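Blinded run. Sample ID left blank on purpose so nobody reads anything into the name before looking at the predicted structure. Input follows.
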Amino acid sequence: MERKSEQKIGSLLDQFIRANRLEKGLAEYRVKKAWNELLGVSVSKATQSLYIQNKILFVKLYSSVLRNELSMIKSDIIIRLNESAGSDIIEDIIIK
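Blinded prediction complete.
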């Protein structure tokens, strides 16, 4: 039996994601995962909740000191999270 067309699994997954309109959800998942990886264990442990709504990342932290530190580098965090997500999914971060 001869194979008529071969495709890489990555391209098939991309087609599936686009066909089912899962790009936004996948990008949001990547942002949440990147939050823990990029900012480290101490920030990850201090994060109480993390969600995205209307291109705004809402972060609730246990530590007020950490909240102030992250507020100062908010623009850098946005750039790094968007790079990890592969698209401009985050425009602002609100840290509570």
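Unblinding after everyone has recorded impressions. The mean pLDDT is 87.
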